[in-house]
Amino acid sequence: MAKMGRPKKDATKNNSIGIRLSEEYYSRLLQYASEHELTITQVVQEALEKLFQSE
User: Fold this and answer.
1) What is the pLDDT of residue 13?
2) pLDDT value for 7
3) pLDDT digits over 1-55, tens only?
4) ∠ CA 6-17-19 to the nearest 5 degrees?
5) Is the dihedral of CA 19, 24, 30, 33 positive or negative?
6) 3-state secondary structure of 19
7) Contact 43/32 with Cβ under 8 angstroms?
8) Which sign, positive or negative, has the C-alpha torsion 5, 14, 37, 54?
9) Angle at 32 between CA 27 and CA 35, to 5 degrees
10) Among 55, 34, 33, which residue's Cα sits nearest to residue 42?
11) With a threshold of 0.70, does the pTM exceed it?
12) What is the pLDDT of residue 40?
């Protein structure tokens, strides 16, 4: 019987990071994500892309 479920992506995301934020930064991050209808992960990924592009 064939395996059911979501097909695997070519580029899987197996790495994770954890950071500690002040209450101010955390609330600003949540506010930004909410206003732009993004997840926190999406906000951080976009910020990293902008950082890497500016090098």
Assistant:
1) 83
2) 78
3) 677 888 777 888 889 999 999 999 999 999 999 999 999 999 999 999 999 998 8
4) 135
5) negative
6) coil
7) yes
8) negative
9) 120
10) 33
11) yes
12) 96
Token pair, residue 46, equals: 């976009």
Could you tell me the two tokens for 52? Answer: 């890497």
Q: Could you give the residue ranges of the DSSP H alpha helices within the chain?
A: 23-35, 40-53
> Alpha-carbon distance 55 to 19, whole Å?
23
C-alpha 2: how far from its chain's center? 32
How many C-beta neighbours within 10 Å does residue 40 have?
12
- Six token digits for residue 4: 């059911």
CA 14 – CA 55 distance, rounded (Å): 25
Encoded tokens for 53: 């592009």
pLDDT of residue 1: 66
